[in-house]
Structure formats: C-alpha cells, structure tokens
Write a structure and sequence with these properties.
Keywords: DNA-binding, Transcription, Transcription regulation. With 142 residues, the chain is mainly alpha-helical. 68% of the residues lie in helices and 8% in strands.
Length: 142
C-alpha cells in the first residue's frame, strides 16, 4: 500500500484524528463513540436512537450500549415520543451539554492542529474537493 493512494490517506487521516480525539475525550471520562453522540445531540436534541445511529454511522446495538452508559453517567435522558410511545427521544442533561461543549472544543483543537500552517484558501479548496470525493463515494454506494 502506497501513501499516495486515496483510500490509504483517508484511513490514515481518520485514524490519527480519531486517536487524538479519543485520547483527549478519555480524560473527560468518555468512551469511544460517546463524543460523536454528544456532538450530534448538541445540534439535534430530541432525536431518536435510529437518527443518532445514522448520523454518527453507528449500528443499532452500539448506539443502545453507548446511550445506556451515557444515561447511567447522567449525560443524556430519554423521553417517550409523543407520536409513538415505543420510540424514545434522546436529550442532553445539563451535565451532558457541558460535556458536549467540551467535546466540541477538543474536536476544534484537533482540527486546528490538522490544519496547521495551511492557508485559508488552501483549506477552502481542500474542503470543496473533499466534499466532491464524498459525493462520488455516496453515488457509488447506490
């Protein structure tokens, strides 16, 4: 595998970024997977477990397990849905909101390190190209 191959570079970038985030959020007593759920809920409070799974790219059993632990730790609370009482809506507690804000800061810090001395113009071009790559990959899924 050569470092010039796109799939390898994507894997390497994800691994390095994820390792930094997991290490730093671990100091906040968060397990892998919980930070992205907290970030997701910060933007979309009251969503369902299914929506969390889709938005965080996690399978149903993983979401269930992570949310149970997060509920035990006082980060989230569940409420039965109004339309369908069998479906729970997930909300951040005050502790969860504070922790989610900390996660957001940690992730922004890792992003800033990754950008390093890359100019704003280079960042913009990269993100435009990267979004096109993602669209191409999504089209390939269908």
């Amino acid at each position: 595998m050569e470092e010039k191959e796109l799939h390898y570079l994507l894997l390497l970038a994800f691994n390095l970024s994820n390792k930094a985030i997991v290490s730093r959020t671990g100091r906040e007593n968060l397990m892998p997977g919980q930070p992205k759920i907290l970030e997701f809920l910060l933007a979309r409070e009251g969503c369902t477990q299914k929506e969390i799974g889709e938005g965080c790219i996690l399978d149903k059993s993983t979401v269930t397990s992570l949310l149970s632990r997060m509920e035990e730790n006082g980060l989230v609370r569940k409420e039965a849905g109004e339309a369908d009482r069998r479906i729970s809506n997930i909300f951040l507690t005050e502790k969860g909101k504070k922790t989610a804000e900390k996660v957001k800061e940690i992730c922004a810090g890792v992003d800033q390190e990754a950008w390093g001395d890359i100019s704003e113009e280079e960042r913009k071009r990269f993100l435009e190209t990267f979004r096109k790559i993602l669209l191409n990959l999504k089209r390939g899924e269908r």
